[in-house]
User: Which sequence fits this backbone?
């Protein structure tokens, strides 16, 4: 199964996906695309020998930006698109071309603590403010909603006394780095979303 990864920043989840592929998971990261110049994620891709592209969204129509994403993903013949810290909301037009084939990872237990504006430390601040005893991460399919697509898997971590948004974020990140490759591996092996790995690349 060929995977395309969309990133905007640091790329630790991308790294986890690359590491699992290198360790023999039944998928290949075929292309990495960033929308932010200088994103460390691009360097991680290059270090792993994966084709890495910068497609900037600034100063151009959204459709043109998404057409370029789509063209690169098609050229790389990807079966599955993984958002890994990709800080753009994809339009229904883009989603329609890869329906049921786009995954996202979110640093909280959806459906709680998701939606527009819920990213980065804000998520962990909200979890701590709520007094929740647990947090975690969620891998879900991307649809036209923000963080609202069907949930595929979640992993939980405890919220500990004295946690700050930063300490909680670090604990959740460790869980993310285990969960995302597990889910992609399960899809590639046909154990989750059966048929997806075997069917032709999204049109
Ligand atoms: C992760 O917390 C992920 O859940 C969220 O964005 C963050 C990306 O971190 N969608 P990284 O760039 O993978 O290190």
Assistant:
């Amino acid at each position: 199964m060929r995977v395309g990864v969309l990133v905007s920043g640091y790329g630790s989840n991308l790294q986890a996906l690359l590491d699992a592929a290198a360790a023999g998971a039944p998928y290949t990261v075929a292309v990495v695309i960033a929308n932010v110049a200088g994103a460390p994620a691009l360097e991680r891709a290059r270090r792993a020998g994966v084709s890495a592209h910068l497609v900037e969204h600034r100063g151009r129509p959204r459709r043109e930006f998404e057409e370029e994403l789509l063209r690169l993903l098609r050229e790389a013949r990807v079966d599955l698109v993984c958002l890994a810290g990709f800080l753009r909301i994809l339009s229904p037009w883009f989603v329609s071309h890869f329906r049921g084939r786009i995954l996202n990872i979110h640093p909280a237990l959806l459906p709680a603590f998701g939606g527009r504006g819920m990213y980065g430390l804000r998520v962990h601040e909200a979890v701590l403010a709520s007094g929740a005893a647990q947090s975690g991460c969620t891998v879900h399919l991307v649809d036209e909603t923000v963080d609202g697509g069907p949930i595929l898997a979640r992993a939980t971590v405890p919220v500990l006394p004295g946690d700050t948004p930063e300490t909680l974020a670090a604990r959740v990140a460790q869980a993310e780095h285990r969960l995302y490759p597990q889910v992609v591996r399960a899809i590639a092996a046909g154990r989750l979303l059966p048929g997806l790995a075997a069917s032709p690349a999204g049109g």
